[in-house]
Amino acid sequence: MLRRPATVLPALAAAALLACSAAGAASTGATGATDATLRIGSKRFTESYILGELLAQTAAAQARVEHRQGLGNTAIVLAALKSGSIDVYPEYTGTISLEILKHAQPATLEQMQRELAAQGLGVAIPLGFNNTYALAVRGEAGSPRKLSELAAQRDLRYGLSHEFIGRADGWPGLARQYGIGAAPRGLDHGIAYEALAQKQVDVIDIYSTDAKISQYGLRVLEDDRSYFPRYEAVLLYRLDAARRFPAAWKALRALEGRISATDMIAMNAAAELHGQPFAAIARDWLRRHPVSAPASISADDASRAVAAPAGGAPASVPTLWRRLFADDFWPQTRQHIVLVALSVAMASAVGIPLGILAAYRPRLRQPVMAAAGILQTIPSLALLAMLIPLLGTIGTMPALCALFVYALLPIIRNTCTGISGVPQGLKQAAEALGLRSMQRLKEIELPLAAPVILAGVKTAAVMSVGTATIAAFIGAGGYGERITTGLALNDNTLMLAGALPAAVLALLTQGLFEWMERGFKASAAARAPARLRA
């Protein structure tokens, strides 16, 4: 192995890529056209979670259904749809026309259907409400009332969602149309209302069906130049899904035109203001709106639904203890541990040989370290978005590959440092005894370097425990599910219920490795001289 470094490095890198690709292909095959499970996706905000649950529960009587919720922004969930990892998800006509199909002006539903068909996708089943973008300010005296008034108020601070800042139909076009020269600050949609209420920002982007508009007493600015298009809620789906699940698709069609804006505001309020679970909200709406019922509720019913959860009296907010040890605790713990253990094992299998190679061949040291360092600088969400189409799946495999990439650098660096730090006298003694390179590595250098190598693996493992929370963005589970849901709902208790177990797991991981390090250090000093005497 050590005699031909020029061929080992590419071979190891290729082996790692082939392993991820093969696993991704296997996972894609598992979700291919022969799979009998209808997979429904949703984005990472309250309304999408609820709509995803409505679709899942509606179709569940006709097919086996899986809801892969909170998959991130449009780019990630669309990549999952195109790869076949999901079959359908709730989307909005404005997003499809302007963001996905890149039209300069809103397109008709028929035009979108024709263009999407070329990609194997379709758009259908308008759900009945328009959830357009808008900007809002605090409802104070002297606050602007129209978007055209913003340009003159240069001291306003803008806190906008990252997706809105980057969308062609979002901030860039809005700023041009209204002549606004401010530089916005990126905020997660779930915490923007609180930031506005605490006067950390002055203007935020909202959805017109947000339940918190009235709760925080906000003023929605009039779009007096008609910039924002209509965002009718529809289903974006794979054409083969409608053919594979005809009964389920017929059931979903029964939702067409049945969800009014007041319905949607009421359901968002039940989640965001009263802490009801998404599944319970969807179940209650379906119970109160059977197929034969009218498409919408009355204004009086709507106002009562906004004022209280969809089940009647306001639900009590669960305590942190109940949130910590809810029914999903052990499944998420198992998912988190599996992600960390497998990714660190993969990184060790590749990183330790690369570190040995870098130690034995100094001219390769810098390129190896530089490559590992560059991989670690790739933003996590960007890496996940790239891995989904590459591997053709969402879930565990892209998450494992991302965590593998981030764990490489400390393992390679510490392995190289540990091997290089073996005293030269011991190496010379081993050579004098006639030990070959591989024998010297196995009997002398690796045992002495083991504590340093293990410290690198420990660093990688502890880092992976925290980084693994991003797995929830692509449906791989773990404690990140609680954190992402808490962000969407601005629920600090739920976020803590995800963050605290991750912190405890990181401390336990560090303690385990430190115990192992002490054992290695206790035996390493005596082992090498004993081998030399033998």
Describe what you observe in this structure.
The chain has 534 residues and is an alpha/beta fold. The chain folds into three domains: 33-130 and 231-316, Periplasmic binding protein-like II (D-Maltodextrin-Binding Protein, domain 2), CATH 3.40.190; 133-220, D-Maltodextrin-Binding Protein, domain 2, CATH 3.40.190; 329-533, MetI-like fold, CATH 1.10.3720.10. Helices cover 60% and strands 8% of the residues. It has helices spanning 5-30, 46-59, 74-83, 93-100, 109-117, 162-166, 171-178, 189-197, 212-215, 239-244, 246-253, 261-272, 278-288, 299-307, 320-324, 329-360, 362-377, 380-391, 396-420, 424-432, 437-467, 480-489, 492-533, and strands spanning 37-41, 64-68, 88-92, 121-124, 133-138, 158-160, 185-186, 203-207, 218-220, 233-238. The chain is elongated and about 85 Å long. The two termini are 25 Å apart.
